[in-house]
Amino acid sequence: MGMPSAFITINGYGLKTTRLGYRRWRFKREDRAIRPMDRREYVYVTSAAVMRKRLTEAGYNRPALELEYLRTLQKISAEGAESYFRTRCCIGRYTSTQRAEACRRASLNDWLFALKENITNRKARISNPPDRVDDRGRPAEVDVLIDTLAYSESTIYPIKTEHLLNAFPCASLDCMAIAMLEVVPDTAECILDVTDLVNHELVYCFDDLKKVDETTGDDRYDI
């Protein structure tokens, strides 16, 4: 059994994991819900549209993502793109040279396209993904980006990130969330799942809801 953890997902795709505790981040107390699944789930849940609005109000939007993307590319360039991928990326279909070249030629939109493919297909390998074009005559090999993102959780890069998608050129949790929210529908669920922490009595933020949930439908508590 693993260490009790909390998980943030957007449209079912992992954004962040924390062990033995959690930070509520952009979720609010009123987002709490107890879901009667096979095992009772304790979650904060809201829609992509609402989460996007909260991030915008906090100063995180597409321009903020673009700025962080450019800053991260500068750091990768300073490290040396091929060295950056060669020393840390040990799995996947492509060589460090191919990954470095794809990174150099790709635009932010190419990375977002690759991210959407990974979210949509849940890391399934795509046999012949289409190429995208950044500038005329410069095809960006998005299939390489898709593969790179698919293995990012099991790869360590020198640029420390606040999220699970280490390979995406963006370090902060807020900007990575903006990137993910760019490629999912407004109705997609954003979830902070603290079920493990509640079950191990490491947090007590759902105690009031648990009491209500346990008494619902019991005639003894009817007024």
UniProtKB/TrEMBL annotation:
It holds the Pfam family HEPN_Toprim_N. Residues 1-215 form the HEPN/Toprim N-terminal domain. InterPro entries: HEPN/Toprim-NTD1 (IPR041487). Keywords: Plasmid. It comes from the Bacteria. This is HEPN/Toprim N-terminal domain-containing protein. The lineage of its organism: Bacteria, Pseudomonadati, Pseudomonadota, Betaproteobacteria, Burkholderiales.
